[in-house]
Amino acid sequence: MKHIRLLREFARRPKEVGIVFPSSERLAKTITSGLDIENARKIAEIGPGTAVFTPHILKRLHKDAKFFAVEKNDKLCEMFEKKFPGVKIYNGDALHIRELARDQGLPGLDVVVSGLPWALFPLRLQMGILKAVSLSLTEGGRFATYAYVQGTVLPGGVRLKKILCRYFSEVRTSKIVWSNLPPAFVYRCKK
């Protein structure tokens, strides 16, 4: 069911949704590991899409942690609300993550996880969102996102690592998750 809805949303808004297949469970485990989510108190997810990463975040959350998500696509946002009725999700733009965090009473986030399709974004949008994420994080805060292996040869994919290095003091990559369709890897960044 979620595969069909995702395909429909991709056909409707390809530059917003960016993927045809949901991320694999293996990629979800990879992106949420090494972020110290268990000890973080203020966490956000941007671009959850079909919310493959969300359960992995939620099961790691500390009992005192606050978590919210931001999804631009209204249909995917509705899907998220049905799947996680107790979790706050904003139907909005990741460019406003800092303001949305403040709205939640969180002046600085410890962790941000992203499922956004970076390689499809123009330079200005990539920089705007990554700057917003960086400004929303506390000092030492962590950011994780993924990229498709073949996307690293597209102009947007080539730029992504350079921009990450501009806004974060540490940028590392995971091993390739070959079981994902298409194969992907994770960028783990620290402010």
Structure description:
The protein is of the alpha/beta class. It has a single domain (about 1-190), classed as Vaccinia Virus protein VP39 (Rossmann fold). Helices cover about 40% and strands about 25% of the residues. It contains 8 helices and 7 strands; from the N terminus they run H-H-H-E-H-E-H-E-H-E-H-E-H-E-E. The protein has helices spanning about 1-10, 15, 25-30, 55-60, 75-85, 95-105, 125-135, 155-165; strands at about 40-45, 65-70, 90, 110-115, 135-150, 170-175, 185-190. Strands 3-2-1-4-5-7-6 form a 7-stranded mixed β-sheet, sandwiched between helices. Mean pLDDT is about 90; it is low at about 1-10.
- Tell me the overall shape: globular
**Percentage of helical residues?**
25-40%
CATH class: Alpha Beta
CATH fold field value: Rossmann fold
Rg result: 15 Å
The percentage of residues in β strands lies in 15-25%
Q: Sheet with the most strands? A: 7 strands, mixed
How many β strands by DSSP? 7
Mean pLDDT across all amino acids? 89
Question: Uncertain spans, ≥5 residues at pLDDT below 50?
Answer: 1-11
Question: How is the topology of this model organized?
Answer:
Layout: H1 2-12, H2 14-17, H3 25-32, E1 42-46, H4 54-60, E2 66-71, H5 74-83, E3 88-91, H6 97-103, E4 109-114, H7 123-136, E5 137-148, H8 155-167, E6 170-173, E7 184-190
Parallel strand pairs: 1-2, 1-4, 2-3, 4-5
Antiparallel strand pairs: 5-7, 6-7
Summarize the structure.
By secondary structure, the protein is an alpha/beta fold.
Q: What keywords describe this structure?
A:
single chain; 191 residues; alpha/beta; Rossmann fold; 39% helix; 23% strand
